[in-house]
Amino acid sequence: MTLSPPAHPLRLALAAVLGVFLLLAPPSARAGNVTVFAAASMKNAMDEISAKWTEDTGHTATVSLAGSSALARQIQQGAPADVFISANPGWMTTLQDEGLIAKGSRFDLLNNAIVLIAHGPDAAKVEIAPNFDLAGLLGEHRLAMALVEAVPAGIYGKAALETLGVWDQVAPKVAQADNVRAALRLVSSGEAPYGIVYATDAAADANVTVVGTFPKDSHPPIVYPAAAIAASGNPLNADFLAYLRGPVARAAFERQGFVVVAD
């Protein structure tokens, strides 16, 4: 019978040290994943940020995009989110009041603006002012907006039109979409000649033109808060939230037209 030679003592020692290191390494030192629920208007920026997060840390980020209201309701129903970024402080506050947001994790991340867009690359500018004739501009056609009672972009848009005194005339002509990107697609495809979306959405689509920007004082400030979900327990949450505040994420947000307000 042939006996195998004994293992070299140095190899045994190295294997033992490696085994102990792997056992003692904290979970955050190993590749992991963070699930991010983010407002649909953040798609382009979050695509870039999630890719850079993986490149820089070795971890992955699964980003689920939808209207903030839909995402908040999913979190209320126990969806396995780790981090939530809302396009409206109200939905974040609702979750916070219900104890669903990790204490001390919430902060304001971004600002945005809402704009009137038109189909095509060379649409004429529109002067947005009190009592401007948006209904006449639409004629028999529709104005694309996100859900005006639930989705932040729709809520802000309706508030602006009310402040400017034109909502009652325009309301029957509004085509409501599930989220702001869906409203953008209606205008981009030509199904609706005009729409109200975030400035960042308009910048992401060459098939639309910004024909006017709504005055800041015509609607509540557009603020995107971010926070960790209380039930998550993912050790990567704090790291990812810090990454959103860092230089890589800041550059990605600014390329898409967001104003970064987080320190």
Automatic annotation (TrEMBL):
Sorted keywords for this record are: Metal-binding, Molybdenum, Signal
Give the source's domain of life in one word.
Bacteria
Choose one Gene Ontology CC annotation of this protein and give it: outer membrane-bounded periplasmic space
Q: Could you state one GO biological process linked to this protein?
A: molybdate ion transport
Q: Which residues form the signal peptide?
A: 1-31
- The positions annotated for binding molybdate are 41, 68, 153, 180, 198
UniProt xrefs under InterPro entries: ModA, ModA/WtpA
A single GO molecular function, which one? metal ion binding
Its family remark reads: Belongs to the bacterial solute-binding protein ModA family.
The UniProt entry, under PANTHER family, shows:
MOLYBDATE-BINDING PERIPLASMIC PROTEIN (PTHR30632), MOLYBDATE-BINDING PROTEIN MODA (PTHR30632:SF17)
**Quaternary arrangement and interactors, per the entry?**
The complex is composed of two ATP-binding proteins (ModC), two transmembrane proteins (ModB) and a solute-binding protein (ModA).
Q: What is this protein called?
A: Molybdate ABC transporter substrate-binding protein
**Organism from which the protein derives:** Stappia taiwanensis
Q: What is the lineage of its organism?
A: Bacteria, Pseudomonadati, Pseudomonadota, Alphaproteobacteria, Hyphomicrobiales
